[in-house]
Amino acid sequence: MPQIKFSIIIAAKNEEQNLPLLFNSLTKLNYPKEYFEIIFIDDQSTDNTKIIIENFIKENTYISIYESHNKKYSGKRGALEIGISHAKYEYIMITDADCEPQPEWLNSFAEKFKQGYDFIFGIAPFHQKNSFVNKISCFENLRSQLLMFTVAKMGFPYSAAARSFGFRKTAFDNLEGYKNTTKTISGDDDLLLQEAIKHNMKIGTVEIPDAFVYSSTKNKFKEYLIQKARHTASSNYYLLKHKIFLGIWHLLNLSFLFSVVLTFIDILFALPFVIKLIFDVITVQVKQKHFGYKFGIAESVYLQIIYELLIIVNYLKATFGKTKWK
Length: 326
Description:
With 326 residues, this protein is an alpha/beta fold.
């Protein structure tokens, strides 16, 4: 019987369409119900989100709901802070209202927490569909998580996704909660992780498929850009060592990509471009299953080029545009 007890915190704003899938996943978690609670925070929804959650609670007494009036912080972090303040247990799990945690989600995090970790993040793939925006979103997610988890295992974590994120409440309190993460409307996940890194806390990962947390991508390209701008804005406030690492990484990749433009000077300038594409395609083909994806070789080629170009677009939009929490 597991000894760790969890408080699952979920902020929901206008999520009436997504809640049934979330509820279905939560009821299938392979973890004794007496060992966890679920706390919803209705973040001033204007649809039937609150009513749907209240109906779900009638059948499940280990679930509760609070409203986000008088939030201490703006955006989702303010709603999450309310939920965390009501948590009964030491171990906090964060996910989103449009997510589908797999059955071993809590078990896998429990095993890691028993090893003494303060913060843990897991793999959070998107459902793959046959649409262009979905392919872009899924490929971007694959490439981002591939880098994120690879360097984390090398002892250099820098980011996490709130769709599958856990931490000890004591560690959260020691960081003064979200107090130092309010520079952007997003960042309730990766900027909190940055604070944990700054304070030398122990950070781990969960990567087994039965602990994945799935969600759906945006349907429109404009919605995708808005979402990515919100997420990317947080990177401007990473620790200096992480900004240097990411800056060098992306500049090297972009310089290899754009080397093909100089082929009018010498055909040899195409060599870095070709080498990069071959390396990227092999990496995707070898690693994609680990992150819950399946792309063909042709898809890996053209999506890699689009992904690199969108890095520029998303960064500029995040830096000079405006972002908002729904």
